[in-house]
Structure formats: C-alpha cells, structure tokens
C-alpha cells in the first residue's frame, strides 16, 4: 500500500475512516445550512447573529476542556465516542424537525448550537486521542493526516451538496441528513475488533486531574508554542464560515449555491494540504510556523481579489496552508505527548483551536457589518501573518525554546529526558504527574524504537 495510505492497512482504522467521512460530510452540510438559516431566514443578513451562533457552538469547548480531557483519559474512549455521536444525532434531528415544521426561532438555534458545543467539548479530545489506539505510534502522523483528509473530503462534498439541497428543499432537510449521518460512526465503532485496539494507558491515581494536564503543557515549551500559534490564528484567521458567507452574500451578491461552491473550492486546497501531510513521516514545529505565515499571506491576497471567481480560486492555497498548519500542529503535539496525558493535552489543544472562534467570530461579524466583508478577511490575514512572525522572533531569541523546538523536530524519542528532569525539580503534585507521565513515555518510546529497528 502507498505510504500515503498505510494507516488504511489496519482494519479498525478503515472502519473509523469510512464512518468519519460520512459524518464529516453531514457536519459540513449542517454548518452551511446553519449559517444560511441564521443569515437569510431568521435575521436580515446579520453577520453578528451568525457570529453569535458560531460562538455559542464553540464556547463550551473552551470552558469544559480541562474536565472533558480528564474524562477522555479516564474512561473508555470508544464508549465515549458512541455516546457523543448519539447525542449529536439527536441535536441535529431536533433542529431539522423545527425548521421543517416552521417552528424554528433564532433563540432555538442558539440553544441547539450550545448543545452541540457541549457535546463537541467531549467528542473532540476523545476523537483525537482515540486515533492513537487505532494505529501504531509510527503510523500516527499518517493517520492524523488521513483524518484531516477525511474531514476535508467532507468539507469538499458537504457545502456543495448543502447548497443544492437548500436551493431545492430549504435548510430543514440538510439538518435531518446530518443527524442521520452520525449513525455511520456509531456503526463503525461497534464493528471494531476491540482486541486489536491499542491499550489505553489510564492515568495513575494522583495523575487524573485537569491541573496535571495544564502543568504538563507548561513543562513543554514546544507544545505551548504550538498551542499559542494555533489559538491566535483561530481567533484571527480561521473564521472562514463567517467570512465566506459575508463575501458571497454581500460583496458578490450570490446565493446559497454559490456560497456552497466557495466552501468546496477552499476544501480542494485543504484536502491537498491534508494528503501532503499524510505523506510526511514526521511533522515539525518549523512547519507549523511557516504554514501559518503562508496562510496569512494568501488570506491577504484573497481579500484583494476583485471577482467572485478570482476570490474562489485564491481560497485553494488559503485552504492548503491552513490545513498544513493544523495537521502539522495536531500530529506534533500527539507525538510529543505521553499516552496517559494525551486526552487532557488534546482537550486543551481543541479548546484553544476551537475556543479562539467564540472570541473572534462576533468581532469578525461586526467588522463585516461596519467596514465590509473584505476587511474581515484582510484583518484576519494580517493578524495571522504577524503571529507567525512573532513566533519566529520568539524562537530565535529564546535558547530554551530553541532547544525544545529542535528536540521536537528530531522526533518523539528525543523529547523525554529534559522534560522529565524539569518536572522533577519543581516538586509540586502536578509536576510529579508530569514526571511520571514522561517516564512512562520513555519506556513506551524505547519499546517502539526497538520494534522499528527490528
């Protein structure tokens, strides 16, 4: 099998990927339909209302992340994911029925968006950490890349399908289809061979708290740097579902079909970035920073495009560099994190990634209303470019950060000792948890390295 798809040689991962692409397509269909419902049916083209809806959907991820991550490390992730998929299906079907029956009001959309956010707070870290149970450690970068490819294949298909369905039948059926799509993931999870799943390393007593996860991230400057970059970029530049809707509707005077096409065109670049990431054996912190800079620069150029089609074509490199940054960040953090801490660390990562949206989306919506949609894209691009340049300057001026980045870029087997020693010297319960976790990582990495050498 091609190195780009080697994780698919594992049956459990094939089941996971097949269910995920169906669900991802439904999720992107709902995102388009939800924004269009709020923008055109429940308000008079209110960018602020769309921003509030998005904020409510992502705010719980930010607020509940520490506890959600601790639960992900403590409980069976497969069972957690089955529960979150069922809950997501119920919420999607409820919104669909409200719209179809003509009973939907803006406050109801707000409430259901909040419910989806609460479910996502648990689902996100469980989903990310569960991948490490499906594949060996040396397959993890490939599996993360293919996960992103699946997500963006859904993003490629979903908006276009949603745009057509909205034109033909309205937004209601789109929500119903999304609700049904979660059954695919439940089916794939129940069909897995549990004996072939990797052992979920549970945290030791005294190492189960959310605070231990925060302490762990503080002890790893390379992880903290990546999270800082992703969080700021998410707040400033990763608001495409708002900016593209405003550009399509207000700048280019287009309808739902053309709006869906823009999302699908951007997904072409995103899918390309994910597939390129799947070919990469080991991501680096430098790649995260470089991709963020390229994402900011191409976003600025897209804001200056004079026509609908030139703007759409420019979204291809925008999507490519955005997904290169996110996929590299995800894989780097997972490879650098101890198995017993992975749920909490990924919960913090998801909180920062998705939590930046509640802060940025209402502001972006207000900028669009006051100054025009182009400024929403332009300001996001400029801000993202400045974040990348600041990260480069920070690394160049900090010897400690340079050492941590170099260690991470050399590979996961070389990221253990210094962190363990730093954790041992502080003497706090949280730092002791870090020391225990990193010591366990050393044993696991040695075992994996020995098998690889053979």
UniProtKB/TrEMBL annotation:
Record key words, sorted = Cell membrane, Membrane, Transmembrane, Transmembrane helix, Transport
Q: Where are the transmembrane segments?
A: 12-29, 49-68, 80-104, 165-189, 223-247, 259-278, 285-305, 311-333, 345-368, 374-395
Family matches, as PROSITE patterns = MFS
Note the Pfam families from the entry.
Answer: MFS_3 (PF05977)
Q: Which residue ranges does the record assign to the Major facilitator superfamily (MFS) profile domain?
A: 1-399
| Localisation | Cell membrane
Q: Which domain of life is it from?
A: Bacteria
Q: Where is this region: Disordered?
A: 418-454
Q: Which membrane topology describes this protein?
A: Multi-pass membrane protein
This protein's name? MFS family permease
**Originating organism:** Kineosporia succinea
Q: What is the lineage of its organism?
A: Bacteria, Bacillati, Actinomycetota, Actinomycetes, Kineosporiales
């Amino acid at each position: 099998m091609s190195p780009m798809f080697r994780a698919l040689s594992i049956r459990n991962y094939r089941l996971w990927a097949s269910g995920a692409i169906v669900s991802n397509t439904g999720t992107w269909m709902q995102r388009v339909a939800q924004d269009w419902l709020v923008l055109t049916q429940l308000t008079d083209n209110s960018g602020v209302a769309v921003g509030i809806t998005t904020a409510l959907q992502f705010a719980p991820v930010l607020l509940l992340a520490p506890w959600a991550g601790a639960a992900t490390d403590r409980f069976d992730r497969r069972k957690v994911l089955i529960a979150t998929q069922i809950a997501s299906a119920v919420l999607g079907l409820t919104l669909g029925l409200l719209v179809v029956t003509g009973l939907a009001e803006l406050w109801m959309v707000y409430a259901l968006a909040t419910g989806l956010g609460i479910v996502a707070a648990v689902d996100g870290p469980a989903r990310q950490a569960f991948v490490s149970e499906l594949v060996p450690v040396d397959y993890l970068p490939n599996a993360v890349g293919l996960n992103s490819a699946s997500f963006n294949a859904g993003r490629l298909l979903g908006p276009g399908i949603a745009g057509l369905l909205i034109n033909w039948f309205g937004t209601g059926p789109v929500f119903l289809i999304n609700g049904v799509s979660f059954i695919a993931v439940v089916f794939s999870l129940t069909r897995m061979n549990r004996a072939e799943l990797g052992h979920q390393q549970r945290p030791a007593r005294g190492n189960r708290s959310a605070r231990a996860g925060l302490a762990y991230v503080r002890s790893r400057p390379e992880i903290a740097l990546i999270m800082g970059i992703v969080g700021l970029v998410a707040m400033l530049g990763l608001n495409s579902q708002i900016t593209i809707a405003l550009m399509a509707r207000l700048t280019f005077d287009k309808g739902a079909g053309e709006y869906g096409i823009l999302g699908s065109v951007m997904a072409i670049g995103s899918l390309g970035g994910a597939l390129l990431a799947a070919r990469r054996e080991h991501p680096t912190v430098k790649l995260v920073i470089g991709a963020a800079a390229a994402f900011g620069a191409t976003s600025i150029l897209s804001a200056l495009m004079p026509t609908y089609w030139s703007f759409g074509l420019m979204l291809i490199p925008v999507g490519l560099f955005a997904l290169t940054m996110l996929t590299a960040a995800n894989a780097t953090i997972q490879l650098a994190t101890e198995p017993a801490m992975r749920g909490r660390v990924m919960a913090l990562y998801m909180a920062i990634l998705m939590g930046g949206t509640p802060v940025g989306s209402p502001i972006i919506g207000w900028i669009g209303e006051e100054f025009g949609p182009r400024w929403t894209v332009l300001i996001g691009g400029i801000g993202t470019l400045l974040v990348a340049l600041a990260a480069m300057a920070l690394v160049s001026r900090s010897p400690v950060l340079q050492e941590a980045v170099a260690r991470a870029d050399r590979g996961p087997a070389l990221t253990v000792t210094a962190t363990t020693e730093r954790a041992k010297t502080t003497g706090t319960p949280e730092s002791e948890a870090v020391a225990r976790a990193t010591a366990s990582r050393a044993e696991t990495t040695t075992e994996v390295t020995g098998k690889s050498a053979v």
